[in-house]
Amino acid sequence: MHRAVSATLIAGSVLLAGCGGSGETDRPSEAEQVRLVSSSLDQPTERLREAVGDARMSDRSSMVTLRAAADRAGDALRVAQQDLQLIASPARVGLRSPARQVSDALQDLQALTDVLSSRSISIADLELAAERAGQASRDSAMALPSIDTDRLIASLRRSRRFHAPARTRDGASVPVGSDDATSTTASAGPAYVDYTGPAFQAKLPSGAGWAVPAQSQPTPGELFRTSVRGPGGMFVIIDYTPYEAAMFGGSYRSRTRVGQTAFGSATKYVFQGGRLAECQRSTCVDYIINDPAGGGGFGVLAGGGSTASAEQIARTVAESVVPTGE
Questions:
Q1: What is the CATH number of domain 189-323?
Q2: Is the dihedral of CA 113, 115, 121, 122 positive or negative?
Q3: Can you give the residue ranges of every domain in the chain?
Q4: Taking CA 57 as the corner, what is the angle to CA 55 and CA 62, rounded to the nearest 5 degrees?
């Protein structure tokens, strides 16, 4: 259950007040409604900003406060995104809709709260999520909350150096706190290898914890699937439909038109739920890529870990998909 109060209720009361006879002239504009929804985030994000600034790995109480503040801010952001989807009129669902633009930006900020609410914060995930949230805030046409995570990241690094167990490399001791001793935590993500599938080439995750790609045909001759399983339940799936366009089914938190190397553009969906158990437990990211010159399409789905990891893996794989012409 969401603990945040829906801003739509507030906006709705304003809209109803204008229906007493004066007509559409009293109806707030979309931009005014967006500002109202954005203002509902001021209190929870300010508390999160303070909690991030005070958090120290050596102080258990401050970390508990941080997780609680991140949970509350995440709830408020989810409600705000739902409100913005309702505000965006059907005629303005495109990229120029103010409500759609702000909703997409809030998705990146929500991904940051997901990382901050974790009991074991990954430095790599935090750095990636913080960078994307900061960029989204800078690119937004409307002022959005900003969360400075630099001090928290520094605290995490110090804690990892002081508490990481001693390791050996080729029989020699590796000093605790060295770059090698923290490489797994600080890694920006998995390594990627070139892979050739049915009628396409792409880069797939590889390295420690990642299995070799597996191919299957859920619908023989019509749906070709390449799947890779990784550590901690992470996964990525590429579906290829040679005779029909790829489509996203079900509800989603956000939908964004993005660039794609070979096909020019793709549509990114961020959601939780559906038939896959991994996507029911955590946020998944699905890229839908269709060939404008033909009838086929691709779907690139990633999830099973943190939202930031799913975003990074899905984006890397989706951008690398290139048809082979087979």
A1: 3.40.1000
A2: negative
A3: 7-157, 189-323
A4: 35
Q: What is the pLDDT of residues 64-121, one digit of tens each?
A: 899 899 889 888 888 888 888 787 655 444 445 777 777 777 888 888 888 898 878 8
In contact, 11 and 83? CB cutoff 8 Å:
yes
The pTM is what? 0.47
Outline where the chain has alpha helix (H): 7-17, 30-39, 42-54, 60-87, 98-116, 123-139, 150-163, 183-186, 277-281, 307-320
Phi, psi of 173 (to 5 degrees): -70, 140
Is residue 244 a contact partner of residue 296, using CB atoms and an 8 Å limit? yes
What is the residue whose two structure tokens read 């290139």?
A: 322
CA-wise closest residue to 95 among 83, 105, 80, 109: 105
The number of beta carbons lying within 10 Å of the beta carbon of residue 76 is 27
Would you call 269 helix, strand, or coil by DSSP? strand
**What Å distances lie between residue 225 and 51, 65, 214, 289, CA to CA?**
44, 43, 8, 15
Q: Is 165 helix (H, G, I), strand (E, B) or coil?
A: coil
Give alpha helix (H) positions in 171-246: 183-186
CA separation, residue 320 to residues 7, 39, 75, 200 (Å): 39, 39, 33, 10
Q: What is the residue type of 77? A: L
Q: How far apart are CA 281 and CA 290, in angstroms?
A: 28
**CA-to-CA dists, residue 115 to 28, 35, 134, 214, 231, angstroms:** 35, 26, 14, 30, 17
